[in-house]
Amino acid sequence: MDNIKFDEATQKELSVFLEKQQAEARLHSSIHNFTGICWDKCVTGTPSTRFSRAEESCLSNCVERFLDTSLYMVRRIEEQRSALENGTTKFS
Amino acid sequence: MTDFLKSSAPTDMNAKKEAVMNAVRNEIALTNAQQLMNSANERCYKACITKPGTSLSSGEQTCLSRCLDRYMEAFNIVRRTYMTRLSKERMEDQANVI
Fold first, then answer.
1. Residue B49 falls within a domain, yes or no?
2. Domain ranges in chain A?
3. Contact in structure between B63 and B47 (CB atoms under 8 Å)
4. What b/e sequence results for B40-77 when a residue is b if at least 16 CB atoms lie within 10 Å of its CB, and e otherwise?
5. CATH no. for residue B23?
6. In total, how many domains does chain B have?
7. Model-wide pTM > 0.90
8. Partner-chain contact A63 B71, CB within 8 Å
9. Residue B31: which domain range?
10. Which domain of life is it from (chain A) (predicted)?
11. Which of A50, A84, A88, B43 has the most CB atoms within 10 Å of its CB?
12. Does A53 touch chain B (CB under 8 A)?
């Protein structure tokens, strides 16, 4: 079975499949990353049998604000760059 | 290698395709589980084992199993929030295009 070759259609199918799987893996990695960051921020006491309301909303706010932060940073850097290009103001 | 191999039976080719796909799926599922375990392990150790003794006490074990449950729950809350946000942003992007 090792020397079987894939025809063109199958190669295409496999590359689409691989791309999808890679995208999913990247998504999972981000979720793991956020879970770690937000756990550290929101879950401070000894873990109990259920989350408190506060912990639960902290976790989801944490994700939202983290994403806001990253959008904000991108916008700031773009602003600063265009300000530099226009030569009007330097970093404020 | 040689061209005539290309014309091998399509069922063999499909079987090999399925095998490749399953291998990739398994690999990704494994990585995912490992990431979850590593990160839960680290955090639950921090939360539950404050003074390491000569063995895991029953109190520590209770804490660890609760912590693991909470970690999974946190993962699900984070995933739900993130997915909702992603689909909301995708819809806004589409609205902007129109």
1. yes
2. 8-42+53-86
3. yes
4. beebbeebbeeeeeeeeeeebeebbebbbbbbebbbeb
5. 1.10.287.810
6. 1
7. no
8. no
9. 9-97
10. Eukaryota
11. B43
12. no
